[in-house]
Design goal:
With 203 residues, the chain is α/β, with parallel strands linked by helices. It is 16% helix and 24% strand.
């Protein structure tokens, strides 16, 4: 009987350990949401910059007429309005709600998209793991990943536009500088935006 009780307890403990850990967006971010390359001493460099293939033409361009002549091919982020607006090269505008940086964690200026990544890994920085030892070295793609399903990397300010596993944060001042989007929105933006796209971050 004791053996059966012991085996049942061991089986229960194993099952509990096997449950997936979900890492909520960490509120102690120090380096713009903590992806490894944000640390200048990190062994993880940013994804390489690449140029669009010669003759590249977005297929959406074939079926949409220009609707505006302002800021074509540009992302404009209005921080105080929690809004990201992308104006395509042919003039159509797409507006998305976003989460922005908390007070004291915001960056303003002009930058550009350097690269994109589907299903990015999340690498908490050493300082984050020191504050929260339960954080792993790497969070693989999946529902536990605070970067969501897509990440768009920016050149200056060490910032990203990315998804989130906490959609309730959209429309708030929640991050340490990065811009969070709903999954369906970031996936749509990801398809349209190419490296080299200008990004303007306003107050």
């Amino acid at each position: 009987m004791r053996l059966l009780v012991f085996l049942a307890a061991a089986l229960f403990a194993t099952a509990m350990q096997a449950q997936a850990q979900v890492y909520a967006p960490y509120d102690g971010y120090d380096e713009y949401d903590g992806y490894g390359y944000d640390d200048p001493y990190s062994p993880y460099p940013p994804p390489p910059y690449y140029e669009p293939e010669p003759g590249y033409r977005d297929p959406l361009q074939e079926r949409r007429e220009p609707s505006t002549r302002r800021a074509r091919g540009t992302i404009v982020i209005a921080t105080s309005e929690h809004t990201l607006v992308y104006t395509t090269s042919w003039g159509e505008q797409f507006a998305y709600p976003i989460a922005v940086g908390r007070e004291g964690k915001r960056w303003y200026g002009s930058t550009r998209v350097v690269s994109k990544r589907e299903h990015p890994e999340w690498r908490p920085t050493a300082s984050m793991r020191q504050k929260n030892p339960r954080l792993p070295a790497v969070v693989k793609p999946g529902p536990a990943n605070p970067l969501g399903t897509r990440a768009i990397y920016l050149a200056d300010g060490l910032l990203r536009i990315h998804g989130t596993n906490d959609p309730s944060s959209i429309g708030t001042n929640a991050s340490s500088g990065c811009f969070r989007m709903y999954r369906e929105d970031v996936e749509e933006l990801y398809q349209m935006v190419q490296p080299g796209t200008q990004v303007i971050v306003q107050r």
